[in-house]
Amino acid sequence: MPGLAKRVFQRMGPHRKAGLPPGTLLHIGEVKAAETRIRIIDYDEKEYRETEVKAIEDCFSYTDESTVTWINIDGLHEPKVIERLGNRLGVHPLVLEDVLHTGQRPKMEDFEGYLFVVFKMLQYDENLNEIIGEQISLIVGPNYVISFQEREGDIFNPIRDRVKNGKGRIRRAGADYLAYALLDTIVDHYFVILEALGEEIEALEEELVAHPTPETLQTIHKLKAEMIFLRKSVWPLREVVNGLERGDSPLIAESTRIYLRDVYDHTIQVIETIETFRESVTGMLDIYLSSISNRMNEVMKVLTIIATIFIPLTFVAGIYGMNFKFMPELEWHWGYPAALGVMFGISIVMFIYFRRKKWL
Amino acid sequence: MPGLAKRVFQRMGPHRKAGLPPGTLLHIGEVKAAETRIRIIDYDEKEYRETEVKAIEDCFSYTDESTVTWINIDGLHEPKVIERLGNRLGVHPLVLEDVLHTGQRPKMEDFEGYLFVVFKMLQYDENLNEIIGEQISLIVGPNYVISFQEREGDIFNPIRDRVKNGKGRIRRAGADYLAYALLDTIVDHYFVILEALGEEIEALEEELVAHPTPETLQTIHKLKAEMIFLRKSVWPLREVVNGLERGDSPLIAESTRIYLRDVYDHTIQVIETIETFRESVTGMLDIYLSSISNRMNEVMKVLTIIATIFIPLTFVAGIYGMNFKFMPELEWHWGYPAALGVMFGISIVMFIYFRRKKWL
Amino acid sequence: MPGLAKRVFQRMGPHRKAGLPPGTLLHIGEVKAAETRIRIIDYDEKEYRETEVKAIEDCFSYTDESTVTWINIDGLHEPKVIERLGNRLGVHPLVLEDVLHTGQRPKMEDFEGYLFVVFKMLQYDENLNEIIGEQISLIVGPNYVISFQEREGDIFNPIRDRVKNGKGRIRRAGADYLAYALLDTIVDHYFVILEALGEEIEALEEELVAHPTPETLQTIHKLKAEMIFLRKSVWPLREVVNGLERGDSPLIAESTRIYLRDVYDHTIQVIETIETFRESVTGMLDIYLSSISNRMNEVMKVLTIIATIFIPLTFVAGIYGMNFKFMPELEWHWGYPAALGVMFGISIVMFIYFRRKKWL
Amino acid sequence: MPGLAKRVFQRMGPHRKAGLPPGTLLHIGEVKAAETRIRIIDYDEKEYRETEVKAIEDCFSYTDESTVTWINIDGLHEPKVIERLGNRLGVHPLVLEDVLHTGQRPKMEDFEGYLFVVFKMLQYDENLNEIIGEQISLIVGPNYVISFQEREGDIFNPIRDRVKNGKGRIRRAGADYLAYALLDTIVDHYFVILEALGEEIEALEEELVAHPTPETLQTIHKLKAEMIFLRKSVWPLREVVNGLERGDSPLIAESTRIYLRDVYDHTIQVIETIETFRESVTGMLDIYLSSISNRMNEVMKVLTIIATIFIPLTFVAGIYGMNFKFMPELEWHWGYPAALGVMFGISIVMFIYFRRKKWL
Amino acid sequence: MPGLAKRVFQRMGPHRKAGLPPGTLLHIGEVKAAETRIRIIDYDEKEYRETEVKAIEDCFSYTDESTVTWINIDGLHEPKVIERLGNRLGVHPLVLEDVLHTGQRPKMEDFEGYLFVVFKMLQYDENLNEIIGEQISLIVGPNYVISFQEREGDIFNPIRDRVKNGKGRIRRAGADYLAYALLDTIVDHYFVILEALGEEIEALEEELVAHPTPETLQTIHKLKAEMIFLRKSVWPLREVVNGLERGDSPLIAESTRIYLRDVYDHTIQVIETIETFRESVTGMLDIYLSSISNRMNEVMKVLTIIATIFIPLTFVAGIYGMNFKFMPELEWHWGYPAALGVMFGISIVMFIYFRRKKWL
After folding, report:
1. Using CA atoms, how far apart are residues E48 and E354, in angstroms rounded to an integer?
2. Cα–Cα dist A99/A85, whole Å
3. Which residues from C are below 8 Å from D340, CB to CB?
4. Extended beta strands in chain B, E state
5. Which residue of C87, C211, D210, E44 is most buried, as measured by CB atoms within 10 A?
6. Cβ-Cβ contacts under 8 Å, A322 against chain B
7. Neighboring chain D residues of C170 at a CB cutoff of 8 Å
8. Dihedral over alpha carbons A206, A212, A216, A220 (to 10 degrees)
9. Is the pLDDT of residue E169 over 90?
10. Predicted confidence band of residue E9 (pLDDT cuts 50, 70, 90)
């Protein structure tokens, strides 16, 4: 699996420099966004406001109101912004550290007054031909959800539209339902990744049957590494969603838990599909190896049989190439055709023998 | 395992399109039934009524009465029908979504007032020569059972007959016993699948001993994939049945739990048999590979031995084919027969040597 | 593992025909006994009666008395007999079904008023050279034990003798102790099977070292299948015995539980020995495969070396077999011996080289 | 793993003959001691008495006193002795049976008034070059410890000395601390075994790098079997010590539990070391197999290359060995050297080609 | 994995000599420090004192005060020093033994009045090119932390600086937070090790693709052994940190537990990364083996094809080298060129055939 270790290490993100005190806010990750973009959606059943602010202080007023406020922050390269927001809302410094250090594994932590949820958004990069992951963190308070992303993405647009259009349950429900909707969108998106992978596996399966090459082997190993990366990103999510559903946080309404159970089911389905894909890829590896060794064996067998048929013939030719004075056969008029006939006979006999033994 | 990923992905069903709000009712699956067929069986210990209605509203009156009502809906391509039924009975929109999205894994959910059970009916498709699965959902209320199927099937006919003829306990018991009977029928049917698979494995075992071919290998891999698919469909059922048996839902009578324990035992037996089949198939793979490599080795050995015997002989012939002026043996009268004799002797000695070494 | 799937499927027994209502009493299994034989042993500390009855109704009086009654029923092909007994004692129809369907996995079920225990008696069939299993069911009431067997066996004779002779604790203790004694006898008998298997493995180990043949491989695979079958039969017993020992059934006296713990220990020992045997057989497979490939490699190496030594020699002979007009060596008087000498020299050099490289 | 099954079966000991009632006292094991030797050490903080008695009845008076009494019984071939002791102290017959049947797996059982502990003492037999196990049983009462061994050993001598010299905590503490000390000694002794095994593995590692032979393979398999045996003997001890430490028996003082936790830590360390050794041995097997196949491949490659270089040369020689009337080259004066030159050229070209391809 | 067993055994440390009473204080480990160095840092929110004492008695006064005292002891070769400190603070002798015996596995023990924590500091030794571990023990009391190291290291310097400069929360918090900070530093340092390993794996991956050699195989096996060693050192830490976080010790403040949860997350991340590295290394082993066997097969195939093409040609040459009197072809004027042409034709036909079969 060339590159697995490297990719996992890179993508799961670097770690805080040893020696710094905990809670030191430093963005660790690739700086992807040009500037920090702060978008606010504030709504309740009746009203809807959407705005984009420049300074983080501009959001503070929203969180005090009884309406549900969704603050979407794209870009994590300005720790000061995150820090000021965190201080205002009373968020633990370690949480802010985890938001900025984008190498967290998916987790859910229940603090007094808010929930902290980290998970991975996965995307299939067509250029690199591999899955890339991005950390998304949520802080879910009584009437606000703050979402942090490294770079702008359009994956949450349908939710924005649903809120705007007042479609579905979302405008009536609280911040917990909004958090659920975000989580649900991410998990739904995993199926898109799985579909792409599924197609890649299918194509590989056909290639494997039609004309396996050493490149097939490399693709198999690449897929295997992809699967390990995927499993690493999705597996802990199971616990996260379960923790939200079964936890005793008062921030999650009873009616939302049923929806979280639905997300849980989908997560299990994603995990099971990944496992099946892994078994499939492992099976393909076995098939590849046995088909390669089969072909090699076939080649060697045929070649060895050709050699084996000719060696006795050459021997006969060698005999009549000897320079003994007295070799009666050499004098015979029909000696030459007879020798040819004998050779032909030997080869026929050997051919039939090999055929009967099913060697040919 | 060619095609495993594809089949699992296809059969486990597609997922709701990302971005749609949860609870959006859309049938996702292959549209198999020509039209939605709604059959009602309504009974208690004394009475029995069987009817087929066109409009879903016609069932509503039945569910109010104290008699047990079984509503069997074949065909899921009209979400409106499902929705109207769900609304009337107060079923959660996510449940209706799961009924329509036929890619669920087997599960049991306990809602207030009703239980929701999903499982897979398996059938052996003789044409495709593979196992196909169909989702069956049950909504079990206090005095009704609603069963949803994608297409009409005759697997529940014996139960219809038993209800009709008042055979057994079924007419005396409630809706929970009816649900049990449906579940029991499904699990019993798994044994039919297992029997078919068992016969296929047996045939393969004989083929393996008699004359293994590359096709044998493909069949082994196909069976392995079949087993993974089967396990994926049956394994979660264990939890489902256990949840029904040990759960604290008041909808399941104590006397029915003993019957559910029986279904649980059968499920375990099905799972164990699948595991044994898997071990068996894995063992067959090992035997195939070692028998193939054995045969190849035998061929190569014999061929190499033939070559090895002739090479020294050819060398002797080569010596007496040299054109040196002074080679006394060439002048001898018995030189030629002597040379032949020497060659014959060499071959005999080698033959004996190889025999003694057990190489031949 | 040729035949594993078939054997497991056959021996674990067929399943009730799909579609029949639960509790339908039909003997499913091979009809082994000529006729149903009903033997009754009735005892307490003072008295002892042994009798054989023709009609099942003749036992009913015994179960009412305060003495311990052991009803031993050999032969399950008359469902009516079982049914009448079951009805009289108030046994659940599903229990009777399980008694008759001899494909159950070992289990223990705690009903009100009685315990139902199923386990497998194993025997080594010398003719088939394989282990065969037979289902034994026990119904343990407050003062009776009913044991069901498919065919008559003499494995319980020592217990009959102990009861008769009043040897040991058995006459003083109740029905629970009798049930323990039956279970203990079965588990003790497993050690006999293990001893036979152990000897077979030992013989195989010696054969493996002395002269491995393809038959060795087949025996290894047969033993592996045997082990899987054995594990499948014994593994669930662990839970059964544990359930009896730790369960809260009032039918099991505290003093008997210590004895059950002893049986539990033995069951663990049986399971551990099976696991060790499995590891042993797997190790033998590895040794077989590597020794076979080692031998093959040795053969190929020696043969290739022979060929390699002769090919250059033949080349030299070929050179002096050329018909050029002007080849000075051919005219030399000592040309021929010199050529032979050169050949001899080449072969010596190569031989030494190969030796030094440790190739020969 | 030649001999594993045999050794495990032999050493783990035979089982009670099927059919005998439980509690039948019969020594099953190799009779190792010449005669039963009964040594008594009786002490408290102030006093110390050491004596050896002939008849078991002579110990009885000691167990009544408030002093701690250690009765060490070497030799188990006289069941009567064990029985009389057991009866006197009210020990359950099954316990006495387990003492005499030396094939128990390590276990701890909590009876009213005493604890019964079984474990394995391991020793490295230099002659057989394998680890042998001996069963040691302890009965721990309120103020006595009875230890049973099959044959005399000097492993407990340091404890005797510590008691005698009043060194450490042992004279102040009760019977539970004495039992701990015995257990601790056994576990400490495992480290000696591990050290011997570690050295053997090291030697093997060096042999593997320097000059692997088929004997190396056998030693690896032997070590693997040794490891399985070791694990089987030590693994259950973990539970035993944990049971003593966390159990609620009033016989174990709170202050002793801290010491038992220490033994527990050591047991875990032993188990972990065994697991690492196993991984190490498995790794060695892989290295052995790949190095062997590497060497074989190297040999075959070189030999095949030699053959491949000479075959075209021989072909050229064959051409000029043809007897055509009109072959102009044969007439040339420099034909022979030219032919030799051509041959030399061909071999040089091939050599360079193979070199460049990194085949040589 | 050459050397694994040896290294694990050596580094995990030797064990107390069997026979010595528990609590005997003897330093077991390599004596690394020249002399025992005792450094004391004593601080509270306002004050800060740093001093180095010669005699252990000089620390005693510090531990009585209400300030937080950190006693750092480098060098364990003077048991007396440790003993006097332990006695003064009422530390259990077994704890002191564990401090001195540097082969402990990471563990946490909760004693009355203090916590005892053992873990491994890992360092990458550039000279030996392997990871070396050192045991660090902490005794955490209400207002003191005592840390024991075998030799002086500078890993804790940043913490000393943070305390000195009053940076962060550390000066305000108690001894528990200091213990957390030490633990956090160690775990942070693991990431440095992982980074070094990650780079080594990357380099190996590139080497594997570019030009795999037998040395590559050895490096893979070395890395695998490294990984096993690492896992063995880090895995138990998970339980240690969890025990501290979830334990009910009053010594750990509620606010510190959140920080410990952070360390726990990091530990999980370290463990997961190790697991991914292991999978990666195992994958590399597979790739290495299949690429080596691929290359070998390619070589053998090409060589065999060369031989196979020349063998029939040589046979033709052999025919016309026969000395029959009457071979008309030999007399033909164009016989020689015709023979050459036939040979050329044969080789062309074979070449095309092999090409079409994709053998070449």
Report:
1. 85
2. 12
3. 319
4. 37-43, 48-53, 68-74, 107-111, 114-125, 130-140, 144-149
5. E44
6. 317, 320-321, 330, 336, 339
7. 21
8. 70
9. no
10. low
CA dihedral B171, B176, B177, B181 (to 10 degrees): 120
Range list of H helices, E128-250:
157-165, 175-210, 214-246
Considering only CA atoms, which of A129, A101, A103 is closest in space to residue A28?
A101
pTM greater than 0.80 (yes/no): yes
CB pairs under 8 A between A and E: 161
* Residue A330 parent element (H or E): helix A328-331
Helices and strands of chain A, counted as H and E runs: 10, 7
Judge whether D311 and E317 are in contact, CB under 8 Å: no
What span, in angstroms and rounded, lies between the C-alpha atoms of A269 and A263?
10
- What is the rounded distance in angstroms from the CA atom of residue D31 to the CA atom of residue C256? 32
Angle between helix C214-246 and helix C175-210 axes, rounded to 10 deg: 160
Long-range contacts of A249-256 (CB under 8 A, 24+ apart): A249/A110, A249/A115, A251/A114, A251/A115, A251/A140, A251/A141, A251/A142, A251/A175, A251/A176, A252/A115, A252/A176, A253/A173, A253/A174, A253/A176, A253/A177, A255/A173, A256/A173, A256/A174, A256/A176, A256/A177, A256/A180
Cα C138 from Cα C147, distance rounded (Å): 5
Is the Cβ pair C225, B262 closer than 8 Å? no
Q: Which domains does chain C have, with CATH numbers?
A: 4-290 (3.30.460.20), 300-356 (1.20.58.340)
What is residue B61's three-state secondary structure?
helix
Of the pLDDT bands very low, low, confident and very high (cuts 50, 70, 90), residue A12 is very low
Q: What is the pLDDT of residue E40?
A: 93
DSSP state of C59: G
What are the CB-based long-range contacts (under 8 Å, 24+) for E116-121? E116/E91, E116/E140, E117/E179, E117/E183, E117/E240, E117/E244, E118/E240, E119/E183, E119/E186, E119/E237, E119/E240, E120/E233, E120/E234, E120/E237, E121/E149, E121/E153, E121/E155, E121/E186, E121/E189
| A198/A276 Cα distance (integer angstroms) | 10
DSSP C106-145: SEEEEETTEEEEEEEEEEEETTTTEEEEEEEEEEE-SSEE
Q: Å from D259 to nearest chain E CA? A: 8
Mean pLDDT of D267-281: 91
Phi-psi region of E39 (alpha: psi -120 to 50; beta: other; left: phi over 0): beta
CA–CA gap between residue D201 and residue D207 (Å, rounded): 10
Confidence of residue D32 (pLDDT cuts 50, 70, 90): low
Per-residue DSSP letter, A57: G
Chain E segment 195-214 residues within 8 A of D by beta carbon are: 214
Q: Which chains touch D (3 or more CB pairs under 8 A)?
A: C, E
In whole angstroms, give the CA distance from residue B167 to residue B159.
Answer: 10
Consecutive H or E run containing E131: strand E130-140
Question: Residue B53 burial by CB count (10 A; 0-12/13-18/19+): exposed, middle or buried?
Answer: middle
pLDDT in tens, C56-94: 888 888 877 889 999 999 888 888 888 899 998 899 999
Cα–Cα distance, B252 to B177 (Å, whole number): 8
Q: Do residues E76 and E99 touch, judged by C-beta distance below 8 A?
A: yes
> In a 10 Å sphere around its CB, with 0-12 CB exposed, 13-18 middle and 19+ buried, how is residue D142 labelled?
middle
**Contact E128/D at CB under 8 A:** no
Q: Residue E21 and residue D168: Cβ atoms within 8 Å?
A: yes
Q: Is A341 on the interface with E (CB under 8 A)?
A: no
For chain D, say whether E21 makes contact (Cβ under 8 Å): yes
Q: Which amino acid is at D294?
A: N
